[in-house]
User: Which sequence fits this backbone?
């Protein structure tokens, strides 16, 4: 047996809940420079548990940043394509940090937290993001890295019941809303958001109290700790891209099927990095597109596998694997625009075999977000 | 029948010149939920150390290297519908393939059960 595992930096850091995970039987792996739990009971069991109950994820490797000061919204708009100045207090929006050529430097969540904007960025990119923000935010804007905060996610159809038992106000949140909450004396910032396609929450908690909060949550019968393995299969089924794989500096938001992150106002006015390249793509279309693929049979196609239409290569898989809720292998990848329509039959080369696959609308498993109002 | 083990976590149970190959309990535990097994073809001629099978888990695809050379006589058809047998019975019903050994001398370099146990404890 040999397993292809990614190579990581020499120094692997410990997160606030490292000991907690080991005590709960996790298998730890290096990820984004940290020791993180890949699984506890098993990936499929944890995946299914989250779809049916509530899963607790430690996502403390992610970067929690704050941006504040007069003109912070406009300063962020100079770096992202979202309508940040229209974001109301305690509202959350998905956005993209863009390079001057329109490439995606990171995808992130922005929350208007009242006196500042809170950014949640990817763990593997956070140091580059901080460097980028320091370089391009004006001097009068303050950037803080909340490296004393842990981040927990509670996801699944029973997450709201569970969390509201200790933080009643959580029930009042709609999808992509947040609030500053108190759990006893502990200050939390909770948003109704996540990376599984299920209803759920992300909870920013001081590192010192993170284990106590995790204990309080897993003490409930509907909550179990879930590792990174199931986090990946859940997000794949939800059609959510993984930075560094499905989107990179070489992808633009339109090809990546993330044009929804470019607000109407910004489309009209431009003024975000790469607008000169991205706006024409919005108007005229792109040469390739990120699509979902459902694969016949049981053999999985993974990152790097070539996608064919007949003899011609028309694309490449960017992530894929067995999807427990689908009951078979699925993938995401980029294909030439002419082959991107749902239902198109393609084949994927894996270890010399050609697997038959169909382009499939994403999400593969319907989102079950708790939307409180119909948005236009 | 004697069972031998490799450092790559395959086992081979040998009866005369017939060998049955699988992955060890340690290996399946490391791989996690197995979702697909790609098996060698019956009649394939394989050389010691060749990657002849692939075990696909939710996490990753992993090669299985044949512990000895020979001709494949049977592949475990039950794994087509139930690849999880490799998780539940890795050293029993979750076997991968059988082969006729072409050189029994190749077994000399493999570990016995006690040797493998010591090896795994040191990992």
Assistant:
């Amino acid at each position: 047996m040999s397993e292809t595992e990614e190579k990581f930096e020499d120094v692997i850091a410990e997160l606030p809940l490292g000991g907690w995970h080991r005590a709960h039987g996790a298998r730890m792996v290096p990820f984004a420079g940290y020791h993180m739990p890949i699984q506890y009971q098993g990936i499929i069991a944890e995946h299914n548990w989250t779809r049916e109950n509530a899963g607790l994820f430690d996502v403390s490797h992610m970067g929690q940043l704050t941006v504040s000061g007069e003109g912070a919204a406009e300063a962020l708009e100079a770096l992202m394509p979202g309508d940040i100045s229209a974001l109301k207090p305690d509202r959350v929006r998905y956005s993209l940090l863009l390079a001057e050529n329109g490439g995606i430097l990171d995808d992130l969540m922005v929350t208007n937290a009242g006196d500042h904007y809170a950014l949640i960025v990817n763990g593997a990119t956070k140091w580059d993001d901080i460097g980028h923000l320091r370089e391009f935010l004006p001097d009068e804007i303050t950037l803080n890295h909340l490296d004393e905060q842990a981040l927990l996610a509670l996801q699944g159809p029973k997450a709201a019941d569970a969390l509201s038992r200790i933080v009643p106000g959580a029930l009042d949140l709609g999808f992509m809303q947040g609030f500053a909450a108190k759990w006893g004396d502990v200050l939390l910032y909770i948003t109704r958001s996540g990376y599984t396609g299920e209803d759920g929450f992300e909870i920013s908690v001081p590192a010192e109290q993170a284990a106590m909060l995790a204990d309080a949550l897993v003490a409930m019968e509907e909550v179990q700790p879930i590792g990174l393995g199931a986090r990946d299969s859940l997000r794949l089924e939800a059609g959510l891209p993984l930075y560094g794989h499905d989107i990179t500096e070489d992808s633009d938001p339109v090809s990546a099927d993330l044009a929804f992150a470019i607000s109407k106002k910004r489309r009209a006015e431009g003024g975000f990095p790469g607008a000169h390249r991205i706006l024409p793509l919005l108007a005229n279309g792109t040469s390739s597109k990120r699509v979902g693929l459902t694969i016949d049979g049981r053999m999985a196609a993974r990152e790097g596998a070539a996608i064919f239409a007949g003899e011609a290569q028309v694309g490449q898989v960017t992530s894929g694997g067995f999807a427990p809720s689908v009951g078979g292998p699925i993938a995401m990848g980029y294909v030439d625009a002419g082959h991107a329509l749902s239902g198109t039959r393609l084949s994927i080369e894996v270890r010399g075999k050609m697997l038959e696959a169909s382009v499939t609308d994403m999400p593969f498993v319907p989102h079950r977000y708790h939307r409180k109002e119909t948005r236009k | 029948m004697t069972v031998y083990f490799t450092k790559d976590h395959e086992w081979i149970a040998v009866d005369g010149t017939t060998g049955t190959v699988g992955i060890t309990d340690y290996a399946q535990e490391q791989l996690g939920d197995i979702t697909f097994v790609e098996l060698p073809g019956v009649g394939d001629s394989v050389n010691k150390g060749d990657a002849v099978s692939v075990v696909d888990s939710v996490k990753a695809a992993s090669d299985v290297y044949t512990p000895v050379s020979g001709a494949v006589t049977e592949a475990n058809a039950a794994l087509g519908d139930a690849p999880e047998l490799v998780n539940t019975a890795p050293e029993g019903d979750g076997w991968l393939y059988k082969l006729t050994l072409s050189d029994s001398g190749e077994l000399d370099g493999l570990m016995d059960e006690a040797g493998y146990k010591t090896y795994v404890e040191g990992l």
Q: What stands out?
A: Chain B touches chain A at residues 8-10, 23, 27, 30-33, 35-36, 38, 54-65, 83 (CB under 8 Å). The first strand of chain B starts at residue 2 and ends at 5. Chain B has three helices and nine strands.
